[in-house]
Structure formats: structure tokens, C-alpha cells
Amino acid sequence: MADSSTQKLHAILVPYPLQGHVIPSVNLAIKLASKGFTVTFVNTQFVHHQTAKAHPEIGSDIFATVRGSGLDITYTTVSDGLPLGFDRSLNHDQFMASLLHIFSAHVDELIGRIVESGEKIHCLIADTFFVWPSKIANKFGMLYVSYWTEPALVFTLYYHLDLLKKNGHFGKKDRREDAINYIPGVAAVEPKDTMSYLQETDTTSVVHQIIFTAFQDVKNADFVLCNTVQELELDTITALHAKVPFYAIGPIFPPGFTKSRAATSLWPESDCTQWLDKKPPGSVLYVSFGSYAHVTRTELIEIAQGLALSKVSFLWVLRPDIVSSDVVDPLPFGFREEVNDRAMIVPWCCQNAVLAHPATGGFLTHCGWNSILESTWCGVPLLCYPLLTDQFTNRKLVVDDWKMGINLSNTTPISKEQVSDNVNRLMSGQSGGSL
Ligand code: UDX
């Protein structure tokens, strides 16, 4: 049994089991351990299985590559309640229901076992999207720290759902279309810039119930830690802080940004450095739509043809499942040959290494929050094409508020001419940006 008078502070950290949440959680675990915490990091077996397939060298420990630095991190996995072969992205509601009931029971059991062994756990750090952390923290007498991996603006819009509802901006068929100008610390947000879940009129889905419950649960948190930058969202953070103990702690990156990374990628990373090394500074457009979003085949074809028209060199992360249909290669016939001398197309890469490379001069992005933080850190301007959830709200921050990027398109559907024109605008430094 550990002597509680000498035991270091012990945090148990539970990320939401999706790529865009696991990465900032792993980085937070490393940060806490480097400040002297003992950390128990809990992954789902599914995420672990995918990571281990992508990085066979890590075996049973995703922190294997950073162990040498003496970090006190125990890595463990529990089942999310679904078989490994179950398609979680296609059956999202079932996946979320399983996280709600079965995964939470497994986390509860795990904590019970650790506590029974005599080890004190001082706090539970869990993703804000979980609906159960305050109950488990309460049961075991731990502090509950809620970890929010998206911007403060997105947090505050979810936090004030009741206000949005009361004012007719959410949850009604004929919802108001004028600007939302009554959220504390937020000047104004157009309804089209709110998260996709807030733009839906049917609010009875599993995801809506989870959002409602999670944002009730977060009211019981002892702290909310947000992976955002204080200076970028000061007014929103200050207003939130008056209601909840909300702290901006970002950007949370791996030490050295591209070095000392734990194995976080769920897909094998292609090495792009040699290709980038041959390109002039600032000449390459990096294109990626993150780990989760899909585009239609029509959109993909316009984007591809626009890239071809632009004559710009580009590095495109084309996830095999980016188009949710069974086509073997969603790119237009002959496209790969046409752009072969100035393009590299890979299924996944080390994005931090690509963004930090001097050859990278722009980023066509779906506006995932991690991508925005990483690109901003590297001074790479953004060409924004939001697809779902918080990405519409993140776009507003980048383009309208911070002037660090431009829109790929102001109309739907997008056309190849728009894509080509805006790629050239961005790459010639006419993004109107401050980067
Ligand atoms: C999801 C949501 O889509 C996003 O809007 C939300 O803010 C977080 O959860 P995701 O779509 O994966 O995230 O996008 P993003 O937030 O940008 O995270 C992707 C992460 O994967 C980044 O850290 C990025 O560096 C990494 N990545 C991406 C790679 O390492 N390699 C790649 O090839 C692509």
C-alpha cells in the first residue's frame, strides 16, 4: 500500500475515444506527468488496437516512445462494450450509447480496483462529452476535472443551450435566423456559424441527449480545463469563468511539437519529409479533413479538379474512408497521373511535422480544432472548409474574428474554379491574414 503522505498527486485521465480527443488528452497526460503527477491513462481497447496496428513497435503501451523521459504514466485499456470489428463511425448512436452505459461501468470498476489496492486517486480528468464523470468522481471522493478539447466559444454555446432555446435560436422548426447576441462574452454569432447539432431541428437524437446531459454534468466539475489560447478567446473565457471554474490551458502539444510524441495516430503515418525537403519554402498546400468527417464524391471531385487547376504543389491526406461509399478510388479518373509531378497523396501523416516544415505554406482544412491550433502555432494560414460539429464555429473564429485564414467557398455547392482561385489567393499571401 502506498504511503498517502508521500504519494504524488494522482490523476486518472479518460479521453473520449476519437482521434481528435485522444491526441490532446495524451499531450495533457505527458504535460501533467512532466510536472510531477502520477497519471493513469485509460484508453478503450478499440482505440488501443487501432493505434497498435499503426505503430507495431509500441506493443501494449502507447507511451512507449516517451517512457525514456521518466514520466510516471500508467497506461491501461478497458472495453467500450462493442466488439473490435464493430464499425463505430457507421453506427454512431450505438457507439455513444455504449460509451454511456458499458464504458462508464468499466471505468467505474477500474477505479474501484485501483482504490481497493490502497492507491489514492486525487482527481478524475474526463472529456466534457462524457455524461457520467461527476457521479464516479463523487463516489470515490475525487476532484472532477472536465477536459474540453474544443474552443471556449463552442463550450459557451453548448453551456447556454437553455438561453438559445428561450430566445428561439435552437430546437424549433422556425428558429430565428438573426444573430445571437446575448451570450455573455460573445459579441455575436450567426446561426449558420453554430455547431451542426445546434442547426438541426430534430433534437431528440442520442447525440443531442448526450450533449444536454454532458453540459448538465459539467456544472458539477471542480475545474474545466480547455485546450484553447487565453489571448485568443479572452472575453469568452472571462465571461465563462464567472459561471464555472473555466481555465484556458492551451495549446497543449507534445514536448518539442514534432519530437517526443507518444504513439497517437490511429493509422500508419506516411513519411512526407523527403518529398517536402525538395520543395521551395512556403510552396506546398497541405490538405486534410481530419480523422472523422466525410465528404461527398461530388465535393471531392470538385476539390481535386480545383487543386489540379490551381497548379499549386500539394500534399493531400486522403483517408481511405473519406468518401462514405464503396468506390475503390474516389479521385477523378486520371487525376493522380495529371498531378503526379507536384502532388503527394497519402492516407495519413505526421501532421505536426508537415505543418512545421518550411515548405508548407497553407492548409486546406475541415477546421478541426486541433488542426487550427497546430497550424496557428506553425504560422501556416488556413483555407477553411468546415464539414460538421464545431467546425463551422471554429471557421468563424479563424476567418471572421482572427483573420488567420479565408473561406474555401462562400456558396454551396463548391466549384473547381472557386477552389483554384482561393488556393491561389491563399498561397500568394492574399489571405488578408495576420500570420
Ligand atoms: C474531431 C472533430 O472533427 C473536430 O472538429 C473537433 O474539434 C475534435 O474532434 P478531427 O476531425 O480528427 O477531430 O480533427 P482535428 O481536431 O483537426 O484533429 C485531428 C488530429 O489528427 C490533429 O491533431 C492532427 O495533427 C492529427 N492528424 C491529422 C495527423 O496526425 N495526421 C493526419 O494525417 C491528419
TrEMBL record:
- GO MF terms, alphabetically ordered: quercetin 3-O-glucosyltransferase activity; quercetin 7-O-glucosyltransferase activity
**What keywords does the record list, in alphabetical order?**
Glycosyltransferase, Transferase
- What's this protein's name? UDP-glycosyltransferase 86A1
Q: What is the lineage of its organism?
A: Eukaryota, Viridiplantae, Streptophyta, Embryophyta, Tracheophyta
Origin species: Hibiscus syriacus (Rose of Sharon)
UniProt family annotation? Belongs to the UDP-glycosyltransferase family.
